[in-house]
Design a protein that fits this description.
The chain has 11 helices and no strands. By secondary structure, the protein is mainly alpha-helical.
Length: 252
């Protein structure tokens, strides 16, 4: 594997996380618990979509096969998507949405801070731009964690249940493979083993503020780096890719 090949796959992963989580949040457009929150979730979805486009444009250039960013999004099958399993989890209720967003945003913040200093200029520029948005995403989600955790008995129960359900998907965030290790040697990728301690400390701090219990570490779901996903991604892609696959020659 060359450095260019590894960087192509790395950008795909980053783009996949953004486009899939962005799509999940976009599903909530007009379904927020109240108007201001509906707009907030929709704007976060747009942030992820914009970020995904930048990563996919760079990935398409690195691949060098004449594909566009749209090709990489709409013409790849499920087994060639590499987003983290956490990002594809469905919107069960508002509590699940917030917990998913919080857990990912803490990880996202530290990852982008590292990538902002990457020796690959293009990747660093995208990371710096995305980091500004991610700081808002994290602040928004952390505030809601506290409001729900310290709210009513029902809101506390629901957000704690969401935390218990989603915790098993967090271990995968810090897995590293040959792509990560090769790029790390070139000063491009982030050291996820180092980020894990930072993530754990910040998550615990917010959970303590919210009066929530950190679930015990146990079995962790894995597989996305090999293109292995839950049934939920297939349903999501069937909806997201429908128009392009039905009318492959269409242009707009």
């Amino acid at each position: 594997m060359t450095k260019t090949d590894a960087l192509f796959h790395y950008c795909l992963r980053l783009g996949d996380d953004a486009v899939i989580l962005g799509h999940r949040l976009a599903e909530l457009c007009s379904r927020g618990p109240f108007l201001e929150e509906d707009l907030a979730l929709t704007n976060i979805a747009l942030d992820y979509t914009g970020r995904a486009e930048l990563f996919f444009q760079y990935a398409a250039e690195l691949e060098g096969k004449g594909h566009s960013a749209d090709d990489l999004v709409y013409r790849r099958p499920e087994r060639r998507y590499y987003n983290h399993l956490l990002c594809e989890r469905p919107n069960v209720d508002f509590g699940h949405t917030i917990v998913r967003q919080f857990l990912f945003s803490v990880y996202d913040r530290y990852l982008l801070e590292e990538l902002g200093a990457a020796k690959d200029t293009r990747l660093a520029e995208i990371a710096v731009k995305a980091l500004k948005e991610t700081r808002y995403h994290l602040s928004h989600a952390a505030d809601w964690m506290v409001r729900l955790g310290r709210g009513t008995e029902e809101s506390h129960r629901r957000v704690q249940q969401a935390l218990n359900d989603l915790w098993t998907y967090t271990g995968e965030l810090f897995e590293m493979d040959d792509v990560d290790l090769l790029l790390l040697e070139h000063g491009i990728a982030a050291d996820l083993h180092t980020l894990r301690a930072l993530w754990q400390a910040e998550v615990k701090q917010t959970l303590d503020r919210a009066g929530l219990q950190r679930p015990a570490d146990g079995y962790m779901q894995t597989g996305s780096r090999k293109g292995i996903h839950s049934e939920h991604l297939g349903h999501l892609l069937a909806e997201m890719q429908y128009l392009v696959r039905t009318y492959p020659q269409a242009a707009w």
